[in-house]
Amino acid sequence: MVTRTIDLRSDTVTKPTETMRLAMAKAEVDDDVLIYDPTARQLENEVARITGKEAGLFVPSGTMGNLISVLVHCEIRGSEVILGDNSHIHIYENGGISTIGGVHPRPVKNNQDGTIDIDLIESAIRNPEFEICYPKTRLICLENSHANSGGRCLSVEYIDRVGDLAKKHGLKLHIDGARIFNASAALKVPVDRLVQAADSVSVCLSKGLGAPVGSVIVGTKSFIARARILRKTLGGGMRQVGILCAAALVALQENVQKLAIDHKNARTLAEGLNKIKGLSVDIASVETNIVYFDILNGSHINALKLGKIMEEHGILLMPDSPSRVRIVIHHQVSASDVQYTLLCIKALSSRLCSRASEGSDCFAL
């Protein structure tokens, strides 16, 4: 009988804390479409302050935040954006920049650490003298931390170099900062310095920070004014949204300092998994709260079956491929939860090895 549930599928699965629920219940609210909601204004101003930008805008999701940002920078249909071929915007956001905005993606190969070689970015910028054939490059997008690279962090030096390149060619730089606070904590660089070179940033509040809903996009006042109109066009204009923003404010106040603990727990988990026979983890890639582990050939199990067996023990995982599993640590996963997870996976591995040596059905556990 399952006595505990440890949800490691993502850092989006957290439940609102009692402090968040109380803040939501007491939130002062008004009509945010008319720009009257005071709690929304407070949150937007706070995120703008933290990121060192002039203004902010609350949006329902990071996907909408990225979409709005790209569309503001690429107002003319047929514009082109340079972005990583393994980036969240390119892979997981439903192709919205092209289907809705008419923006052409120019994917460039991401390195294993989430960066894109500077010379590859520059070579991808279209020659403006050949506009008769080429779309016009207007924007570069980076992601920090980089989810598909295992939560790797882009350094401030790298981002500054990309920012300098953008300015050199008259382009804008947008950062998908879904986990920018994780990157800041891991690099020990303040968020405002980390995004200083960016013209806009999308900051997710419902991932590592644990708020139930929402992101804030930040930039200049003129950028946000145009973004507000696009938010309404996309159906993201909500009324008494301060109820949601109140929880996000609590997340900023209470959970930023917990990210370092999440990173420590992720590292402990990664090192423990790497010691289990049949599993492999690239320890060097574990910089923040995301851990990928591979199931080696000959392990007599696949990721889907592993996930189903672990669920019977109250542990929820997310298979990434038949032989790969993603785990994401968040503030509602304790050090004890990590040890219990390792214990269960190790026990399963031992039983599989034993059954394999006996020639038994490896899945009859």
What features would you highlight for this structure?
Aspartate Aminotransferase, domain 2; Aspartate Aminotransferase, domain 1; disordered C terminus; low-specificity L-threonine aldolase; 365 residues; EC 4.1.2.48; 16% strand; Low_specificity_L-TA-like; seven-stranded mixed beta sheet; 42% helix; four-stranded antiparallel beta sheet; globular; L-allo-threonine aldolase activity; alpha/beta; 13 strands; PyrdxlP-dep_Trfase_small
Would you write up a description of this structure?
With 365 residues, the chain is of the alpha/beta class. It has two domains: 18-253, Type I PLP-dependent aspartate aminotransferase-like (Major domain) (Aspartate Aminotransferase, domain 2, 3-Layer(aba) Sandwich), CATH 3.40.640; 255-350, Aspartate Aminotransferase, domain 1 (Alpha-Beta Complex), CATH 3.90.1150.10. The protein is 42% helix and 16% strand. The strands form three sheets. The protein has a seven-stranded mixed β-sheet with strand order 2-8-7-6-5-3-4, sandwiched between helices. Strands 9-10-13-12 form a four-stranded antiparallel β-sheet. A hairpin with a 2-residue loop joins strand 12 (318-321) and strand 13. Helix 12 packs parallel to helix 14. The longest helix has 24 residues, at 335-358.
